[in-house]
Specification:
Elements lengths: L8 E9 L11 E11 L5 E12 L4 E7 L7 E2 L4 E10 L3 E12 L4 E12 L6
C-alpha cells in the first residue's frame, strides 16, 4: 500500500479539569483525558508505543514516550474500540497535548497515527 497505513485508526479525546486534585496556589493543575481508539480499517492492529508532547501556557514542554498506554498494548480488530483514561499535571491553568501512537498491523506493517492537539483548561479560566 503506497504511503497508506494498512488500517485506519480513529482517535477521539475528551478532557476535564480535576479541581479536587489541583492546587492553583501552588501552580498545580490536574487534568484527566479519555482517549478512544476505533479501528475503522480492514486489518487488525496492535498499539505498540505512545509519544505525547504536553505544553503549558508558558511554553514549557514535557515529552512522554513509552510502550502502550496505561500498561496495555491493545490489539483492535476491525470495528473494535479501546478506551482509556489518563492524566496530566501542568503548572498553568491552560495547556495542550498532541502526539502519536505507533501501531503494527497483523501483516507486520508499522504505521503512525497522529493525535491532533487538544486543549487542557481549568474551568476557573473562563469565569
Amino acid at each position: 500500500m503506497e504511503d497508506q497505513p494498512p488500517t485506519e485508526i480513529q482517535i477521539s479525546v475528551e478532557t476535564r479539569y480535576l479541581p479536587e486534585q489541583s492546587s492553583p496556589e501552588q501552580e498545580h493543575f490536574a487534568f484527566a483525558y479519555q482517549i478512544t481508539m476505533l479501528n475503522n480499517g480492514p486489518q487488525t492492529a496492535q498499539l505498540l508505543n505512545r509519544h505525547w508532547i504536553i505544553t503549558d501556557a508558558e511554553g514549557h514542554i514535557q515529552e512522554v514516550k513509552g510502550p502502550g498506554v496505561v500498561g496495555e498494548q491493545p490489539t483492535l480488530q476491525p470495528g473494535q474500540r479501546f478506551r482509556y483514561t489518563s492524566g496530566s499535571v501542568l503548572s498553568t491553568p491552560v495547556g495542550s497535548m498532541h502526539g502519536t501512537f505507533e501501531w503494527v498491523s497483523d501483516t507486520g506493517e508499522s504505521f503512525v497515527v497522529p493525535i491532533p492537539a487538544f486543549r487542557l483548561a481549568a474551568a476557573t479560566v473562563f469565569h
